[in-house]
Each structure stands twice: as C-alpha cells, then as structure tokens.
Amino acid sequence: MFFFGLGKLFYVVILFINSLAILSEDRFLARIGWGRMQADAAFGATYDNTSVKAKTINLIASVRTVMRIPLIVINTIVIIYELILG
C-alpha cells in the first residue's frame, strides 16, 4: 500500500515536469505576460528579478533547459514499464 501511493506521486511529478517542459514561451507565456523577454522598460525602470513572478519564469525556463534529455529517458522508461507490467 505504501509503494502504491509513491508510484502515483511519481506519475504526478513526471506529468507536472512534462507540462512545464512543453510550455511555449512565444505562444503561451508571452501572451499572459510571463515571457522572459519583456517589452523595453521605460526610462529609468529596471526589471525586478527578485519577485516571485520573475523567479517562476526563470524556474520554467530552467526546467525546459535542464530536464530535456532526462525527461526523454524517464518518459521512455515509464512507457516501457506501463507496456510490460500494465
């Protein structure tokens, strides 16, 4: 029973990381104002990189960059596991 819960939690984490990895910055995130390339700031304005929004944007970009190859491997292992053991 204990491992059954951990297996479902593992699937949820994998699906969440997959969803972050496939978000398109140009097509989706920029439309809602969450793109890294914001419009030019007004004179004297600076980009606040300490806000929660900026840190979340950087986290999404980092997940897309760092987890690309590991996600391919992990997804392949999960698919093979599901095909063999159902």
UniProtKB/TrEMBL annotation:
Q: What coarse category fits the chief subcellular location reported for this protein?
A: membrane
Kindly list the GO CC terms recorded for this protein: COPII-coated ER to Golgi transport vesicle; endoplasmic reticulum membrane; Golgi membrane
Which terms are listed as keywords in the entry? Membrane, Protein transport, Transmembrane, Transmembrane helix, Transport
From the Swiss-Prot or TrEMBL record, state where the protein is found: Membrane
Enumerate the transmembrane spans. Answer: 6-23, 65-84
Q: Among the record's GO biological process terms, what is one? A: endoplasmic reticulum to Golgi vesicle-mediated transport
Keyword Transmembrane helix carried by entry:
yes
Keyword Nucleotide-binding on entry: no
Q: Tell me its family.
A: Belongs to the YOS1 family.
Q: Which PANTHER family match?
A: IMMEDIATE EARLY RESPONSE 3-INTERACTING PROTEIN 1 (PTHR15858:SF0)
Official protein name in the record: Yos1-like protein
In the record, what lineage is assigned to the organism producing the protein? Eukaryota, Fungi, Dikarya, Ascomycota, Pezizomycotina
